[in-house]
Amino acid sequence: MASIEHRTQRHTEAWRVIWRENGTKQYETFADSKQARGFQLRVEAENNHWPRGWVKGRGFVDPDEDGTTFRQWAEMAIRRRTVASERTKADYRRDLERHVYPNLGDLPLERFGTEGIADDIVDWLKTMRDKSLSGKTIHNIHGMTSSILNDAVHAGRIPRNPMRGTLRDGREVHTEEMVFLLPGEVAGILHRVPEHYRPLATVLYGTGLRWSESTALQVHDVDLLAKRPVLHVRRAWKVDDDGHHYLGEPKTRRARRTLRLSPELVDVLVPLVASTDPGGFVFTGPEGRPVRHNNFYTRVWLRAVALASVCERHAGEQLAAEATARKTPRPNAKLIKPIPCDPKECPGVLTKRPRIHDLRHSHASLLINEGIQPIALQRRLGHSSITTTYDRYGHLFPDSDDAISDAVDRALVQS
Question: pTM of whole model > 0.85?
Answer without folding.
Answer: no
